[in-house]
């Protein structure tokens, strides 16, 4: 909302009283009269005359809020965000016409008087009485600067804004006192510079540079006389004289300024008359603020950067302190976003999933060994319209995402890593029947056990039965194999390995000690899964994800750099374990459930995942130099992906290898184009003797098996298992909170998915 200048809306009598009072106060202050009883005047200026005499530093160099620019890793602009659209420029970068116009119309005796213009007060009083209205104000530019600094400090807090503009005797005395001190300490040129940088010109533009760009799409230093006059005229009432919405009133006001400039001798009468006849000549640019303006679909990454800044203590000890720095702006944030990778992600998403589809997709790419987030995109654009959202489907709830999605069988490699790290050979065989009871008891952490008998789970297909070794069971995503594996090694090694790999629930809750974790029953985000798989790619080193490379801030003419979060890397598993899992996952894309995701020009590895009833489907994979995750599903967890059209293609049933797989393949192909081909460090895993089970290589075999609690939003049943059967989730022998596996939504709801 535009800020009204003091004096607006008062009757002639009130104006007379006000101006008389101001002149008396001004004379008192200028005469150096002591003002001991400030409390009675409504000042309460820190409680003492001494503190009142101290000029706050922010009046000398006000911390003007400015736009913040967010850049990609190559220095290209992603977006600009601001609390106030302002770019601070020195006086030399403001047109001389602009300087003369604002002085002529707002304070024509600016260079002759001190902080308070007693002659101007009396002149304005006389003029207003004669006109029976408010024809002229009496505040000097210096006084207006003081008030604008107070408004700026108030930010968007309506209470503080009201306090900064309240028409009290106490506030006016303080304003006068500060104005005198500013005149003494800054001088006229600096006061004029600060004023032109702080004042509001309407249309979201603060300061003359932003106003010049907003109305004329040019720099303030290039304004001609009629353009400068237009901007100077707006200041008195940005709404009334808005040239975009009322060109007639704006033209009248501009011409008043031009005539005033002629009267002051700033321009000749002939120049003024000529300028009055010219059209406004607007060439407006649309206000561009916030992550909604981000290029290449990077709005959600932009929002993630903002969340990082507002939540990381490195940028301030308190949330309020961090928010104050962010709102002040003037930041240049260089991020880790790789423009090539981001463009490839968005291109692949657009090709395979339409924003109007009943389901959505989200994808993230990270760099192994550094934790750098290279790309982040989704099919539903950042916005407020139909088929748009502001929920970042790639990240955890605490960072602007939802409650996450059950990753299904993409969690199985973590189980394999825990087993191998603990000494289980990759040739380990299990009977892996099509159908079996959950083993019981299964050991958990701290001496606890999960002990429930008679609860069944199945594989995806009846033809899928063992015995299987780890290599074949991983390629075919055999549920019963992995449940037998976790029953052997226990739950605790698995949750411990997950934690070492940065795997956490998207809703922030603790990973629960249940054997069904092997089948991916606990909700996670694409960023979490991509970064976990990056641990395999980096041969066992887990690195925390980072999005920011550097931050500098410009305040006035001063620049400073911020410390930024650094990725912390730690060893999650041995190189041999990581290489063994990589070998297993390479088999998935070569002759397992992920063949549609395999890259043709370089080694790749990964895992498919599809939850029960197909509420979510995944592919998570990696090359030696990039790791990425793709999720497809209904963010509200209401639409099962059966008999569904996605991206113009009809699917009887959606599998992880069928829809997410090709998205992953295409986005990684584009992201890696031009990068050197690197090879994995593979290990020899001997083929075990095959049993009678062949499995079914058509589809995402076994991804759907786990029995879970089956908690559903909107009144779902408590049945789990695969589409072909299953029963209620096992009751643990130790206390588990109610609705343990049912995700909460925050607009991105998830019920209990399946393994």
Helix vs. strand class: alpha+beta
Shape annotation = elongated
How are the strands ordered across the major sheet?
Answer: 2-1-3-13-14
What fraction, in percent, of the residue positions are helical? 25-40%
The proportion of residues in beta strands is 5-15%
Largest sheet: 5 strands, mixed
Quaternary state of this entry equals single chain
Number of strands: 20
Distance between the termini: 53 Å
Average of the residue pLDDT scores:
83
Low-pLDDT regions: 1-52, 133-137, 690-755
Q: Helix tally?
A: 23
Report Rg.
Answer: 33 Å
What does this structure look like?
- By secondary structure, the chain is an alpha+beta fold.
- It is 35% helix and 12% strand.
- It is built from 23 helices and 20 strands.
- The strands form 7 sheets. Strands 2-1-3-13-14 form a 5-stranded mixed beta sheet, covered by helices on one side.
- The longest helix has 19 residues, at 12-30.
- The radius of gyration is 33 Å and the shape is elongated.
- The two termini are 53 Å apart.
In short:
35% of the residues lie in helices and 12% in strands. It has 755 residues and is of the alpha+beta class.
């Amino acid at each position: 909302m535009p800020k009204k200048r003091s004096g607006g809306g008062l009757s002639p009598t009130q104006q007379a009283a006000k101006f008389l009072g101001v002149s008396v106060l001004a004379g008192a202050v200028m005469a150096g009269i002591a003002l001991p009883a400030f409390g009675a005047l409504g000042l309460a200026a820190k409680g003492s005359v001494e503190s009142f005499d101290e000029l706050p530093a922010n009046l000398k160099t006000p911390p003007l809020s400015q736009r913040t620019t967010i850049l990609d890793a190559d220095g290209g602009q992603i977006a600009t965000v601001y609390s106030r659209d302002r770019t601070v420029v020195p006086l030399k970068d403001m047109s001389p016409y602009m300087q003369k116009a604002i002085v002529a119309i707002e304070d024509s005796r600016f260079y002759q008087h001190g902080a308070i213009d007693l002659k101007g007060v009396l002149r304005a009083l006389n003029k207003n009485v004669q006109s029976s209205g408010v024809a002229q104000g009496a505040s000097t530019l210096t006084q207006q600067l003081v008030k604008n600094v107070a408004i700026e400090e108030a930010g968007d807090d309506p209470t503080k804004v009201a306090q900064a503009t309240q028409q009290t005797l106490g506030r006016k005395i303080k304003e006068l006192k500060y104005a005198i001190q500013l005149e003494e300490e800054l001088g006229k040129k600096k006061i004029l510079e600060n004023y032109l940088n702080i004042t509001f010109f309407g249309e979201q533009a603060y300061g003359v540079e932003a106003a010049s760009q907003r109305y004329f799409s040019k720099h303030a230093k290039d304004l001609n006389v009629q353009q400068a006059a237009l901007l100077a005229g707006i200041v008195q009432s940005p709404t009334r004289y808005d040239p975009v919405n009322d060109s007639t009133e704006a033209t009248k006001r501009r011409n008043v300024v031009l005539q005033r400039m002629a009267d002051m001798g700033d321009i000749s009468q002939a120049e003024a008359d000529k300028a009055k006849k010219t059209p406004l000549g607007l060439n407006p640019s649309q206000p561009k603020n916030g992550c909604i303006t981000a290029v290449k679909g990077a709005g959600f990454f932009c929002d993630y950067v903002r969340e990082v800044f507002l939540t990381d203590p490195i940028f301030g000890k308190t949330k309020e302190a961090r928010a104050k720095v962010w709102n002040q702006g003037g930041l240049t944030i260089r991020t880790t976003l790789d423009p090539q990778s981001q463009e490839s992600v968005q291109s692949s998403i657009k090709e395979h999933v339409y924003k109007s589809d009943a389901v959505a997709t989200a994808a993230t790419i990270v760099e192994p060994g550094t934790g750098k987030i290279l790309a982040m995109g989704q099919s539903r654009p950042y916005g407020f319209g139909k088929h748009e959202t502001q929920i970042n489907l790639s990240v955890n709830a605490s960072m602007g995402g939802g409650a996450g999605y059950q990753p299904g069988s993409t969690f199985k490699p973590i189980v394999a890593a825990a087993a191998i790290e603990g000494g289980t050979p990759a040739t380990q065989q299990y009977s892996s029947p099509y159908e079996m009871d959950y083993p019981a008891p299964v050991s958990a952490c701290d001496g606890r056990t999960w002990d429930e008998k008679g609860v069944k789970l199945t594989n995806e297909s009846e033809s899928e039965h063992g015995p299987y070794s780890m290599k074949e069971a991983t390629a075919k995503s055999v549920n019963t194999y992995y449940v037998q594996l976790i029953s052997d090694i226990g739950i605790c090694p698995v949750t411990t390995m997950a934690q070492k790999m940065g795997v956490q629930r998207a809703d922030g809750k603790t990973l629960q000690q249940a054997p069904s974790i092997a089948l991916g029953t606990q909700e996670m985000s694409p960023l979490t899964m991509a970064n976990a798989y990056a641990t395999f790619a980096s041969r066992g080193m887990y690195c925390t994800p980072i999005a920011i490379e550097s931050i500098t801030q410009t305040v006035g003419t001063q620049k400073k750099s911020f410390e930024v979060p650094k990725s912390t890397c730690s060893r999650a598993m041995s190189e041999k374990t990581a290489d063994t899992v990589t070998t297993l996952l390479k088999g998935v894309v070569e002759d397992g459930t992920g063949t549609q995701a395999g890259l043709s020009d370089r080694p790749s590895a990964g895992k498919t995942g599809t939850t029960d009833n197909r509420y979510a489907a995944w592919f998570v994979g990696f090359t030696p130099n990039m790791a990425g995750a793709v999720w497809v599903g209904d963010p509200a967890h209401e639409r099962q992906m059966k008999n569904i059209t996605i991206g113009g293609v009809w699917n009887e049933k959606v599998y992880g290898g069928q829809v997410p797989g090709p998205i992953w393949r295409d986005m990684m192909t584009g992201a890696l184009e031009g990068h050197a081909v690197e090879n994995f460090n593979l290990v020899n895993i001997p083929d075990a003797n095959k049993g009678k089970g062949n499995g079914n290589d058509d589809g995402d075999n076994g991804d759907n098996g786990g029995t879970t609690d089956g908690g559903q939003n909107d009144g779902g049943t408590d049945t789990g298992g695969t589409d072909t059967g299953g029963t209620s989730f096992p009751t643990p022998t130790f206390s588990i909170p109610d609705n343990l596996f049912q995700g909460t939504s925050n607009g991105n709801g998830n019920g209990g998915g399946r393994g």
